[in-house]
Each structure stands twice: as structure tokens, then as C-alpha cells.
């Protein structure tokens, strides 16, 4: 069934291209045509459930951010993935799907919070998982897992306890091997040896 | 005695002002804070109340955001399994299975029949566990302690079963990529069958206590009505969506793990109110018991892991300690992780709370490049800002209990 | 009652027991600790199971789980504390009346657990002073009951009269918490 859909969609919209995927039909759609395409998906092709809105940070590649949407059709029992590259690497933006699907509201807020992608037309784009005044976007590849020191917003608590958001003590972990190469180099070992008494001497 | 004035039916504030312009009503801001006995975890509701009526409601989440997705980028596929346990911590086995299947899809790996049957039993037992707690805590929220005690006693029996199978009461970390951690112990299937026999009379008693109970029905019928279109638009899945009338159950529509071989019904609701959602969960427990009985009846023999998955599943311990090739294989697997090909995959499983989805992007190697966890409770909760206004303050406990969400998978 | 504190002869003294005030006060306090469950994540489920009929925390006088800090003695922090939640935990701790104790239940509350990330507080003892730590992920209900028994032992040995007469001491949080 997805072959018919794929050829129909690709013929009708010439700006779409097929995206490599290990399972479902996946398409690339440029950001400007995203709302038009999704409106057609919802009204004509009966993709009535927006399951997921997320983004990938490709680090040093260009384009750096890709927004990914997952749709499901309860009528045809079919999944569809639509990926859309963000044009700007420094301040990525994508159009907001909130007028079409209310589910996009919280999902886009989360992607903005964790990845820093601005959604144009979103009624209430503010942080959802971290607190409002948190200065970083944690899921970006240049943000360390342990976190960066930031002051906590609650002043009365900070007064009593002197607490601030500090980097978690990683002790060199997590211990994952670094990929291909000689086994002695790729063995999992601490990337940061400063805690080790032997090495620290 | 003062004058008696005629007012039209409307909200309290406008009625008072209409009666006497000198009376002005203002709304009160109430914070149902993160620490509150009737919320299923740390959810904060910032509300504007007009007397007892809710005018506006804004849910604030994120109090349990632990950074799972960032952690996943630094762990091998097998090392991430304990984190999936703690997503929906009421039914950890089903999260493990959903994650293992998503990663196996990336490698295009098929697990043998016995492994699939074990996984189905695990998923259905987890579903019974989660719904028992859902119904029990819902009864407690509506005022009945007895229901909570009964269902918790049944859950303790389930915990004994899980402990025998996996070693832990919950947070089991039982599946591995390519199979399960160990085979089922002798006699376990018989004990599961005994449990199934025992849970149905308890369910009957809970049914007698709640289903036609005047107070319970007054508190739940017609409250928290979610229409079909709204439920679809907000991306809800699971029993909440089915109670609204949409026939979507991934076990029937996109069968996995051999669900197409088992005969079970999917209950669909009529009105989409709290009462329907409660009935949905009670009925699903019965259907799960039916599925477990069918699986036990047709339990296949064979290996419990994919034997041909050389770089993905660890070989058995006796081979590792005696043979060189298996030793090297085990070493590579533990240090570098199961080697997955390049690609991206999105897989959803029908969890007790909804569809739990994993979007895994891999650039090759043993560590995922990006993992997105689609938590069903995250999507189910987004409807609150539209659902709660218009209800009374006391309806909050009933509505939140009926939505049956868990903050672990909402915030991840 | 402690052995050294009972000196009682009913014919001489009537229905009177002479003992140390500390012994009586501590005995009363330890046998009716009212916990305030700060149930945040998975450990909360084991806390509820400890309150259920199989493990029965009510044997120790603790089945009265007061969710209001004003009415509780002991705050059981069960689950992962994130930075966003830390201020809430501290505020609720300050609303509790003296004497008060804190039990950090589980690996996440004791030291951050397996969540070494940007959003998780590495141990609730950075915001509140903890009396008993319980390890486990999640700890079995028996482990929680063992921790409550240890807390009772700790309460038994407190200087209650001194604390009543002078201002109740403010317990300090971990010295190296500021890092």
C-alpha cells in the first residue's frame, strides 16, 4: 500500500524527495512547503494522528538541524515520516503545525526547549521540560551530558542551601568505546582522567 | 430581608455581577502543586478558579526530566535497557520489549517463536499490573480505599511472578537486543495460570464495588468528556483514545510478536467520559487474561534468543568460558555494544498507557546517534488545558485518575 | 524503657514510673513517626507497596501518610530529584514542623542514581539534611522498613529535652554540597 501512496505523493508534489529509512515510508519536505503538505496529508490522505515531532542535530554537517514528524493514518493503518531541514544553522526555524494538529503544541515546545528550534506561529513557545530561565539547549551535540553550571532561579532556596546547578560528577564515564580503529585505542576508557590518583600525579 | 433578584444561569461571577453591580467577582489563582497526593506523580496545575469552577488551567511538567535522551547517546543499546524500565514504571516489562523490538527492527532481526511468546506474556502481565493500579488508584481517588487494597494485593502476586522470572520485583531489565536475558523457570507457566485464575474473582469484586455504585457513577459519568476529533487532534493513544470511540489498537492494526495468532477483543467506548475510561481498563484486564491463557496453551519450544545474531546477542555462558571465538565475541559485544547498521527506524508498541514509540537514528556502531522516546502520557496530558476548564475543583482528581498517566514517560 | 531508667516499686511510689524525660519523649516520637511521602518516581510505588497489606508499615505506627508537611514528622524522598523539583522539596521541608527527619529512599535520592545528567540533582542531601539513606533501585519494601527501624533507633538516642529547652538545632546539609 505504501508504494501507491509514495508514487502518488511524489508525483503530485515535486518538491518532495524520498528519504532513506529502514522501515516506513519517509519523505523530505522543505520547510516553506511544510504546512501546505501537512494540510493535504491530513485532509486528503487521512493522516489524522500526529504522533511525534522531534529534531536531529547533525553537529558539524550542513544543514545542522532536521525536524522530523511522524504521522499515522487510522483509516489506512500506515505510518509516514516527514523530515524537514532547517535552513539556518545558528537560529533554526520551522513553521508550526499547531493550527493543524493540537498535538504539535507540546511537542514543539519540547523540541524548542531541548534543541533550540523556533517554531513560527506557535501560540506559546516557551520551555516545557527545563525551567523557563534555563539558558542552554541540552540535547544539542555541543552541550555536555554532565551539564554546565548555572544559577538556580529560586532565590530563597539558594539563600538557605547555596545550591546551584552544577555539572554532574562524571568520573570519566560513561564508558563507551570510540568506534573503529586499533582495539587498544577503542577500548572503553575514561575520557577524562583527572580524578585518577595515578594519572593526576 | 434583602431583595430577591432574577438572574440567568451562567457562571458564578457573572451571576453575582448581574444581580448587583457593586459585587465584583475575581478569579482566584490556585496552584495544585507538584507534590500532591492525588496526582500520579509530579504534575503541577496552575489554575484560575471562579469559586469552585475552573476557568483556566495550565499544566506544568518537567519535574521529572532526567535527560534520558541525552543519556541514550552515550550508552550502548544494551546499557540503555534499565533506563527504559523507568519510563512507565508501572509496567516496566512492556517498555523493555518495545525498546528491544525497535532496535531489532533497525538490524532487521527476527527473534524465534519461544522468545516472542515469552515477550507476549511479559507484555500482557505488565498490562494487567498497570491497569490494576490504574483502577485501584482511581477507586482511591474517588473515595474507596478498599479497591486500592484489593488491587495492590493482586499486584503483589504479580511481583512474585516477575521476581521469579527476572530477579527484580519491578524495574526488571529483562529483554536484550535479540532475545531475552534468560529462559523461563520450570513451573512458571503453571504459576502464571494460577494467578490468572485468581485475578478474575478479584476483578469481579471490584466491579461490584464500583461499576454500578451510585456515588462513583455520579462522580464519573459525563465528566471529562473527550470527543473523537479532539482525541485524534491531540495525538492521544491507548485506552483514552479507544474510550472516545476510535478503533486503534496496535496489537490488531499492526500486529507484532505474533499477536495475530491470538483471539482477543478490543473494547471501544461510547461517550469518552471518565466512566468509559474506567470500564475500558477493567475490560482490558479480562482480555489480557484471555491472551495469556492462549499463549500458555500454545507455548513453543526452541531457543529464547536469536542464535544467528552473532554481533548482537551474547553467546551462552558455558561457551564463553571454554571457546575462544565466543570469548572474543562476548568481549566485543560488552565493550562496543551490539553493532547496528546505519539507518533510522520508528517503532511503536501498544503499552498499557498508549503507544510507546522509539525513534532510533543510528550512524553504525553500538551507540545510537539520536534516540527519541515518544511517551504516551506526554501526549495524553496535553489535552488538560482544554479539558479541565468548565469542571469543578473536585473533578480534578477524577479526571486525572481516569487519564492514567505516569510522569516518568511524560518527562523522561 | 531503657534498663537504667526504670526504678519502680508500686507499693512505695504508687502508679508512677521515674525515668528520664528523654526516654519518654523519644519513645513517644519514635513509635508514631508520621511519614510524608515525597513520591516522585518509581520508588514511590515501592513506598505504596510498603504501606500495603503484605509489608505493612502500619506495624510501626507509620501508616498515617500525611501529605501535608504541617502534619508530618518524616519526609521520605522517594525518587529522582531534578533541579526543577529541588526548590519544591526544600520549601516543603521548611514547612515541616520540628522535630523532623528525612529519609532518602533509593539510589536517585541518595546520590543521583544512574542518572548522571544535566537535569538531575546528584543526591537530595544537597538541599535537605538527610538522616537515613536507603540503597536500591528501587529498594525492596523490606529495605525501607529496615531504614525506618534505623530511624527509630536514631530518634531513640536524641537529646530531646535539650532541644526543647533551647532552640531546635538546624541540621546542616552536606559540607561539600557546594562544588
List the helices and strands and how they pair.
The complex is a heterotrimer of chains A (201), B (412) and C (179).
Chain A: H1 2-12, E1 17-18, E2 25-28, H2 34-43, E3 49-57, E4 65-73, E5 78-85, E6 93-95, H3 104-115, E7 118-120, E8 150-151, H4 155-161, E9 164-165, H5 183-186, H6 197-200
Chain B: H1 12-19, E1 28-32, E2 44-50, E3 53-60, H2 68-72, H3 81-85, H4 92-106, H5 113-141, H6 145-166, E4 175-176, E5 179-180, H7 188-210, H8 214-220, H9 228-233, H10 239-243, H11 250-253, H12 274-297, H13 317-320, H14 324-336, E6 340-351, E7 354-365, E8 370-374, H15 376-381, H16 384-387, H17 395-403, H18 407-411
Antiparallel strand pairs in B: 1-2, 2-3, 4-5, 6-7, 7-8
Chain C: H1 10-13, H2 21-30, E1 35-39, H3 42-51, E2 74-78, H4 83-95, E3 101-105, H5 106-111, E4 132-134, H6 141-156, H7 160-165
Parallel strand pairs in C: 1-2, 2-3, 3-4
Descriptive terms for the model:
heterotrimer, A: 201 residues, Beta Polymerase, domain 2, 2 domains, 5-stranded mixed sheet, two-stranded parallel sheet, 6 helices, globular, B: 412 residues, alpha+beta, Cytochrome-c3 Hydrogenase, chain B, 3-stranded antiparallel sheet
Quickly describe the structure:
The complex is a heterotrimer of chains A (201), B (412) and C (179). Chain A has helices spanning 2-12, 34-43, 104-115, 155-161, 183-186, 197-200, and strands at residues 17-18, 25-28, 49-57, 65-73, 78-85, 93-95, 118-120, 150-151, 164-165. Chain A is α/β, with parallel strands linked by helices and 201 residues long.
According to DSSP, the number of beta strands of chain C is: 4
Q: Kindly state the mean pLDDT of chain C as a whole number?
A: 85
CATH-level-2 architecture of the domain at 33-155 in chain C = 3-Layer(aba) Sandwich
The end-to-end span of chain B amounts to: 60 Å
Query: What order do the strands of the largest sheet of chain C run in, or round the barrel if closed?
Result: 1-2-3-4
Q: If you consult CATH, what is the topology of chain B?
A: Cytochrome-c3 Hydrogenase, chain B
Residue-averaged pLDDT of chain B:
87
Write the CATH homologous superfamily of chain B: Cytochrome-c3 Hydrogenase, chain B
The domain count of chain B comes to 1
Number of helices of chain C: 7
Give the SSE order of chain C as H and E letters. HHEHEHEHEHH
The Cα radius of gyration of chain C reads 18 Å
Largest sheet of chain C: 4 strands, parallel
